[in-house]
Design goal:
Elements: H1 3-9, H2 13-28, H3 32-36, H4 46-65, H5 77-87, H6 93-114, E1 119-122, E2 125-128, H7 129-146, H8 153-173, E3 180-182, E4 187-189, E5 193-195, H9 197-204, H10 214-226
Antiparallel strand pairs: 1-2, 3-4, 4-5
Helix pairs in contact: 2-7, 4-5, 4-6, 7-8, 8-9, 9-10
Length: 228
């Protein structure tokens, strides 16, 4: 089975559940300084990132409840995200955590009852739940990296590879396909730009700030500028 077939047919929940498990464990151990620490999302603290995720779960609930029309996306998705974070700024970390955990548990339980073969209403119309779960697994993984959630060494390589494979799928889905050659050591982009897998993931997710090495980070930043 190739990667495209796997994305479209395999069980998406193991990757999603693994990201949620690591996220919960990490957040449960934070003190106030940890919650207030800056994330890799410009202008957002760790608590702000979780506020964004809580709002995302409210969206997921609205998809399942058939109440998407009650959500206001005026100003676009960035404005909606900004409002969602601002609305939760006065809440304590515990309150934001409680909201997120309750909403996320509800969504996961209902997704499980529907099964991955279901189709659900979304902002872009009826959409395969299997792919929706994969999108959310990717989002949670990206935001986990934004706030420094640890990933065990033995899980890192497989995590990077499924995320890169889904990132390529998502770009194709959006009408922005990439011409790449993937081998065991990394990726070659059109124009013979060679990247290791971590750098390629940073390119796909537009998160060069996730790369600790300055030269690798600057290389991805330059590639992103060239493709905007």
């Amino acid at each position: 089975m190739n990667r495209l077939q796997e994305i479209q047919t395999a069980d998406p929940f193991p990757h999603y559940d693994a990201e949620l498990r690591r996220m919960r464990e990490h957040l449960s151990g934070l003190d106030l300084a940890g919650w207030n620490a800056a994330s890799h999302c410009q202008g957002w603290s760790v608590k702000d990132v979780l506020a964004h995720l809580a709002a995302g779960e409210a969206y997921n609930q609205a998809c399942l409840d058939g109440t998407l029309r009650e959500l206001s996306f005026s100003g676009g998705i960035d404005a909606w995200n900004a409002r969602a974070v601002a609305e939760r700024r006065d809440r304590t970390p515990g309150e934001v955590m409680e909201e997120w955990a309750k909403r996320q548990a509800d969504v996961r339980e209902r997704w499980g009852r529907l099964g991955a073969d279901a189709r659900i209403p979304t902002s872009v119309g009826l959409y395969p739940l299997r792919l929706q779960v994969r999108h959310l697994a990717q989002e949670y993984a990206t935001h986990a990296d934004d706030i420094g959630v640890p990933v065990p060494d033995q899980e890192r390589e497989a995590r990077v590879r499924w995320r890169c494979a889904f990132g390529l799928f998502a770009r194709r889905e959006e009408g922005r396909p990439l011409e790449v050659r993937v081998d065991d050591g990394g990726v070659v982009l059109k124009g013979n730009h060679e990247l290791d897998m971590d750098s390629f993931l940073a390119f796909l997710t537009e998160r060069p700030q996730h790369l600790a090495d300055a030269r690798r980070r600057q290389r991805v930043e330059a590639l992103l500028r060239d493709r905007t």
